[in-house]
Amino acid sequence: MKIHLVATDMDGTLLNSAKEITDTTAAILRAARAEAGVHVVLASARPPRSVLPFHRLLGLDSPMINYNGALVFDPNNQRVVMHTPIPAKVARGIVELARDMFPAVLVSGEVLDRWYTDRLDAAYTTETGRIFPPDVVQPIEKWSDQSMTKLLLLGEPDRLKEIASAIRRDFADFVTMVQTEQYMLQIMHATVSKARALRVVAGELGIDREQVMAIGDNANDVGMLQWAGIAVAVANGVPEALAVADYVTDHHDADGAAHAIRRILFEGLAPGSSADSAPR
């Protein structure tokens, strides 16, 4: 069946180690839109402000998936398609638990596209934090009385492991957690996933799952890969992503996502074929 939607993770997948989209990758993605009529969806743990420059660079008109699926946002129309925040009471409880255990842990809250925190530390920051300053720097009690699109806890990896265990013990029914970096714990509503968000985007566009190709590298991409009709993992992917992929393409520093799109969309790569985008 013809592919009508390509959903791709960004960090570790579409972006190279310099956090850039190469000219080769940009050209293939633009061709996918212009020549094959394919919708390209950026699916990231990042907030809208950090995804938007790439969305504009590629000239996309589709919604984007932010915060691992807690937010689906259509930047062209400034429309929130889906938003699934953590209830304020739960968010406050997690923040209090984390700070009681380790007062030095950094706490950030994201609400739609606004970043709230009470303090910064250059030793622990996100890729977005290196580019964009927080919108609000105030004591936690000043901003923690609202539902949170995503909570971020940053600090020493061993401390975060202990905090994560305590959160699983006390809040397992309320939140889901992703730890793609040892020093950073991302916390979202229990129902949040890239797979659920992709299902919403595909529904908005009237596209069946069999017509969707997903590309990823990390554990938070696995559900999205499993849901899509065709699943592609880059060679640098974690074992969980590689295990569910129909194809394993080149490393993200070798335009792996672009090569997979080219071979599958334009060259008709089929399971069982030999190619640089090798089938599993």
General description of the model:
Helix content is 36%, strand content 23%. It has 280 residues and is α/β, with parallel strands linked by helices. The protein folds into two domains: 5-83 and 192-279, HAD superfamily/HAD-like (Rossmann fold), CATH 3.40.50.1000; 88-189, 2-Layer Sandwich (Hypothetical Protein, Haloacid Dehalogenase-like Hydrolase, Chain: A, domain 2), CATH 3.30.1240. The protein has a six-stranded mixed beta sheet, with helices on both faces. Strands 8-7-6-9-11-10 form a six-stranded mixed beta sheet, with helices on one face. Strands 3-4-5 form a three-stranded antiparallel beta sheet, sandwiched between helices.
Count of DSSP-assigned helices: 11
CATH class of the largest domain: Alpha Beta
Series of secondary-structure elements, N-terminal to C-terminal? EHHEHEEEHEEHEHEHEEHEHEHEHE
Strand arrangement, major sheet: 2-1-12-13-14-15
CATH architecture label name of the largest domain: 3-Layer(aba) Sandwich
Residue share in helices? 25-40%
Rg over CA atoms, rounded to whole Å, is 19 Å
At the fourth level of CATH, the homologous superfamily of the largest domain is HAD superfamily/HAD-like
